[in-house]
Recover the amino acids of this structure.
């Protein structure tokens, strides 16, 4: 049997600018703005604009819907199998990556739970996207579009823009190559897997696996390379602070960490994708099947990072209880809400939990020279309030409004304690 | 650093219990125990004024005195408030706690106090100050002042104040973020490996044990019962008059259907809950707050009466401790209104 190997040919993007035609020259991504806007045309949009936001800029992007890293298979056709391109090569072969930049979608708000990216100032440290050269899509929609249609249009626009931009990498020499393969472990190392929660709550809380709405899924076994290669796409309006963007799926921190130590400290056996449904029967169906998969893989332990907060904790505890009952060690990773009872569900078996920080903490974000999107929307966003905008233009918000501030895959170094 | 010190009538040498109604006054510089504290604090930290007030007077007029306290702290350009120590004196502890609360909530100033573990002021006000445990009476004054002084010096030095175990203060119950050396992902795998190998590890988040709520006995005769329907689904009146937040909501509100939702048995409202697509609830409020069906049941005589008002909050992102607090307050109101049954809709 041949093993799967994925080579990521990485080109580091140090700057982005607009130009006459699309190009990639010595780390500068040149974008034909008009060409890109034409490519993204959709009758749902009354207007599409593109702005650039670079690290250190006095700029705030609000409200952010998704963030996507431009990646494309060497064939030039596939970026997100099942949505843009084909399935067969997913997770192997060569994929071109524009690292250091991202497509960010903003514009009229779809749902309450969209976020903020500050490119400088105190808010910047709470989000990994402040360190990227962001190509921001600002979209306006025609009247009479429902939130679900709006979300779908913006999601597609973001993916298409990433695909379009990644084409500039084709035929270019990469700065370096990262190879991902789960080589057979020589030693007898602990066998581990990741329970990969996939939002499937409906009403704007959905992710897509190979283009399939997660509400139609049963747990599935995934090779970690598949998520690096665009198999999971975000379509989810959960709280900005703990949401996984498409970028977070492509660059999942816990998956990367497991890979880093594979063959040295652990034997990484793969990902078990578990759809997170709101109903109890579906939770039971998915969690019990996921644990059976873990037993079939014969793992000693699993990490269970959370996406979202509140409701998915029922799934987390269910997975934890059933794993521990079957002798599979668990560590969960989540952001606590509140002090005495910081989670919505609990289990005595949950004795190992990583705390990624408290999204209820307030911060004051200073005024920015440039607002990309619409700052007024902060009043309606989760983490903001009617009173959020101060007279001097600064905003007082909770960290839940900052994109990925308390992301459950453990990207940042934040934690919290009770004093 | 400029400090304002709060003491009661006894330590202000006005008198004992009989003078507990003595009104609030301000004296320049340190006074009574403040003088001993000042000598421990040294020159860098100055007690610039002392507030003296009778215990009963303060506790009974706390709200009215808020402005006075705020003005004194502002006039003195205070960097810190010290209150007490109050030892086991209950009303003194309550007064110290109140002053700390005003200082913390109105001006964002830190406060330091000292109390005996059974002082009721400690549990009620620990959130608003660093309260250092003391002995139960003024006989322990010397130790108490030493501890307060050491703590104030530490605050003045700008050194990071660590957790309650390390620093000796009573846990305030406030969650605070900080940055670790490793990412969450690294820590997660570290912990998993330790757990698999049977090595010692410490969870970063001890799991709570939830209080089990015992359901009330069933209502014997529904045809005579007054029933309320209420929701955490954020179905507010149009325009969201009380500005309920989409996430981490800080309040619940009572609305009657007649005034706010377009009439009895009508839910013409708006969804402000940030956790789901509002389209369907906005289209028909009965999907969140089903008063249409309940009105029918009322007409059929299946329930005695549908309460003509509701309570609304937003459950999205709400900590269970806050939810429990809301629940306690709500239950009191429902009992007062003689409501026998409540239907809670979640989303």
């Amino acid at each position: 049997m041949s093993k799967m190997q994925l080579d990521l040919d990485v080109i580091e993007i140090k700057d982005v600018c607009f130009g006459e035609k699309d190009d990639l020259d010595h780390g500068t991504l040149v974008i034909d703005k008009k060409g890109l806007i034409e490519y993204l045309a959709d009758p749902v949009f009354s207007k599409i604009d593109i702005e650039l936001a670079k690290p250190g800029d006095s700029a705030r992007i609000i409200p952010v819907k998704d963030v996507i890293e431009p990646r494309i298979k060497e064939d030039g056709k596939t970026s997100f199998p099942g949505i843009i391109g084909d399935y067969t090569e997913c997770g192997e072969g060569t994929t071109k990556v524009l690292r250091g930049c991202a497509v960010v979608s903003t514009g009229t708000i779809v749902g309450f739970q969209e976020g903020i990216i500050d490119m400088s100032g105190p808010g910047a440290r709470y989000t990994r996207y402040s360190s990227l050269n962001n190509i921001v899509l600002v979209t306006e929609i025609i009247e009479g579009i429902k939130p679900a249609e709006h979300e779908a249009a913006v999601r597609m626009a973001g993916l298409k823009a990433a695909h379009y931009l990644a084409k500039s990498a084709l035929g270019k020499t990469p700065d370096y190559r990262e190879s991902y393969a789960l080589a057979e472990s020589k030693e007898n190392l602990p066998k581990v897997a990741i329970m990969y929660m996939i939002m499937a709550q409906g009403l704007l809380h959905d992710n897509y696996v190979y283009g399939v709405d997660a509400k139609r899924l049963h747990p599935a076994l995934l090779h970690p390379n598949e998520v690096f290669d665009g198999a999971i796409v975000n379509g989810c309006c959960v709280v900005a602070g703990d949401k996984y963007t498409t970028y977070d799926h492509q660059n999942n921190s816990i998956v990367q960490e497991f890979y880093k130590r594979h063959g040295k400290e652990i034997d990484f056996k793969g990902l078990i994708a578990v759809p997170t449904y709101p109903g109890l029967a579906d939770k039971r169906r998915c969690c019990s099947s996921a644990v059976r998969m873990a037993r079939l893989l014969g793992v000693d332990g699993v990490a269970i990072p959370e996406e979202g907060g509140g409701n998915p904790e029922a799934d987390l505890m269910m997975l934890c209880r059933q794993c521990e009952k079957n002798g599979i060690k668990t560590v969960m990773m989540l952001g606590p809400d509140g002090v005495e009872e910081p989670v919505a569900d609990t289990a005595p078996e949950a004795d190992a939990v990583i705390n990624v920080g408290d999204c209820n903490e307030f911060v004051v974000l200073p005024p920015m020279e440039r607002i990309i999107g619409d700052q007024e929307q902060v009043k309606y966003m989760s983490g903001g309030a009617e009173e959020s905008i101060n007279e001097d233009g600064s905003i007082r918000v909770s960290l839940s409004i900052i994109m990925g501030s308390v992301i459950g895959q453990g990207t940042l170094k934040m934690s919290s304690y009770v004093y | 650093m400029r400090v304002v010190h709060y003491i009661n009538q006894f330590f202000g040498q006005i008198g004992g219990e009989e003078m507990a109604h003595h009104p609030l006054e301000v004296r320049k510089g340190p006074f009574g125990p403040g003088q001993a504290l000042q000598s421990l604090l040294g020159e860098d930290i100055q007690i610039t004024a002392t507030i003296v007030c009778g215990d009963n007077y303060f506790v009974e007029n706390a709200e009215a005195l808020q402005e006075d306290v705020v003005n004194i702290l502002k006039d003195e350009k205070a960097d810190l408030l010290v209150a007490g120590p109050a030892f086991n004196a209950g009303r003194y502890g309550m007064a110290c706690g109140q002053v700390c609360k005003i200082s913390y909530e109105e001006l964002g100033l830190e406060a330091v106090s000292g109390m005996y573990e059974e002082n009721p002021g400690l549990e009620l006000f620990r959130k608003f100050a660093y309260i250092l445990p003391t002995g139960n009476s003024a006989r322990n004054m010397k130790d108490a002042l030493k501890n307060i002084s050491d703590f104030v010096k530490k605050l003045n030095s700008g050194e990071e104040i660590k957790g309650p175990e390390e620093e000796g203060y009573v846990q305030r119950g406030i969650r605070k973020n900080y940055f670790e050396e490793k990412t969450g992902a690294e820590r997660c795998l570290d912990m998993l490996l330790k757990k698999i190998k049977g090595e010692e590890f410490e969870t970063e988040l001890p799991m709570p044990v939830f209080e089990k709520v015992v359901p009330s006995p069933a209502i014997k005769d529904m045809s005579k019962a007054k029933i309320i329907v209420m929701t955490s689904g954020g179905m507010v009146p149009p325009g969201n008059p009380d500005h309920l937040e989409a996430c981490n909501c800080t309040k619940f509100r009572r609305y009657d259907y007649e005034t706010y939702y377009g009439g009895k048995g009508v839910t013409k409202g708006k969804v402000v809950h940030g956790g789901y697509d509002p389209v369907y609830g906005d289209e028909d409020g009965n999907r969140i707050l089903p008063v249409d069906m309940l009105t029918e049941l009322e007409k059929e005589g299946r329930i005695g009466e549908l309460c003509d008002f509701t309570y609304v909050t937003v459950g999205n992102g709400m900590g269970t401790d806050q939810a429990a607090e809301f629940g306690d307050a709500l239950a009191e109101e429902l009992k007062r209104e003689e409501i026998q049954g409540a239907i809670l809709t979640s989303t």
Notes: The mean pLDDT of chain A is 94. Helices of chain A lie at 33-39, 147-166, 224-228, 246-250, 253-261, 280-297, 312-325.
